[in-house]
Amino acid sequence: MSMILSGLTASVCYVMSNQHGQTSNCSLKAIVLVFALAMCIYSVCLLTFQRPVFALITSLCLLGVVLIVNKTKMNTLREPLVASDLLMYAQVFRFPRLYLPFLNITSMIVLAIALPVIIGVALYVEERQDIHYPVIILLVLTSGAVFFWMAKSLKISSDITKDYPRLGLLACLAAYFVQSFAVTNRQNFEDILANNVLPVGADDAELADIVVIQSESFFDVRRLTHDIRWDILETYDEFCTEAHHTGKLNVPAWGANTLRTEFSFLSGMKNRDLGLYRYYPYFFMQQPNILTLPKLLQEKGYKTICIHPYEKDFFGRHQVFETLGFDEFIDIQHFHDADRFGPYVSDASVANKITALLESSDQPTFVFAITMENHGPLYLEDIEESEIEALTSKTAGKIDRDLAIYTRHIENTDAMLKQLKAYFTRTKKPALLGFYGDHLPALSGCFDAYGFTSNDSDYFIWSNYIEAQSEKCDCAIEQLPSFIVELVNSAKKMA
């Protein structure tokens, strides 16, 4: 009986986990891996409860939860679950607002009601049975060993968008997770970091202050539709007109996962070059020996500061930012009295903090500001009909509610840029401003409605001390550090 139910569990798990996969093309190793995983989970449940049917139900319920979360992520972020998501599970409880509202409310309510009922009935109806402990323990050990071996040896591309349709969800999760911790892969990752190269700065003359703003979910929303008032980004347009470089920015994230874009900017490395570790590089970095833009600037005499008006342990930044080259990390603890717009610290408050730091500094300063105001979920915020109308072009109909909420924040981002431009215009110190969006907002339904398929955000690099010949340059996030060093070197040669 137990063996039959174990096989049934494995079969159901395999079929359900490959609901989006091309099952007929699945490798034998992937099939064996999923069967071994299912049998191991079922056997552990059987050992724990001594109820074969209940063990089956529990195993399938666990799979159901994984599938619901996977479907939610696919719908919201256009990406399946990856192994790094399992490593970030604690953040769901630490920062629930950033995760739980994206789950399908109906599914979660049904699950919350159904699971206790099913489990309670199953426990009540099915009595404990005598099981052959040596056999079940052997099954646990055997299936566990087979699972580990298959997960370790399964051939993957390190690109989840390619592996997921080919292997299915469970095989991808297992292989990515196990292989991420393999000693050889970890060493290769450390070698990749250690061999990173950035342009070398010149050694002569005065250094300009550098401010780079990683703007939460920013892109030029007017690319989506002309229904939005065109002057919503008036100051942004001025910066782009006067910028040294501006254009669309290819980023390795969509809707979330800021850290992927962030690390590519700080390191100048292509996200795909990180292999298995591209999805959560901070977790696997142990005192990294890597050259980064902040480190390069430190060596030239800059004070390097990160500003992020949120908890510093989000994404584990507090564990790696010092080794990435930051002298100081200013987090939410420094924004107790700051104004908020919506649930998060406003962009205006971040601008105030930036200018205060620059004014008080007695040495060249590099400020990397990670904003939060425009962070979702946007649908939880309120907006008046009059506000929606004010954001809409006079020649257009009323725009979507979530899009209006997003656009309202973008208008505030433009106001932040206006604050900074006023400061850079009046200051006598040379200064350089870089600005980019970390990823597009998680507005899948809105984008689909408009037929918008681009994954690119937008950026510009501007200075107050070099006459610019604005160059339209669509590029990738990892190219921005080179642009910045090039401009710093130009200023030094002119001084």
Automatic annotation (TrEMBL):
Compartments in which it is found: Cell membrane
Keywords, comma-separated and alphabetical: Cell membrane, Membrane, Transmembrane, Transmembrane helix
Primary location class: membrane
Membrane topology designation: Multi-pass membrane protein
Stretches assigned to the Sulfatase N-terminal domain: 210-469
Spans traversing the lipid bilayer: 26-47, 53-70, 98-125, 131-151, 163-182
Any one annotated GO CC term: plasma membrane
Protein name per Swiss-Prot or TrEMBL: Capsular polysaccharide biosynthesis protein WcbQ
Native species: uncultured Thiotrichaceae bacterium
Organism taxonomic ancestry: Bacteria, Pseudomonadati, Pseudomonadota, Gammaproteobacteria, Thiotrichales
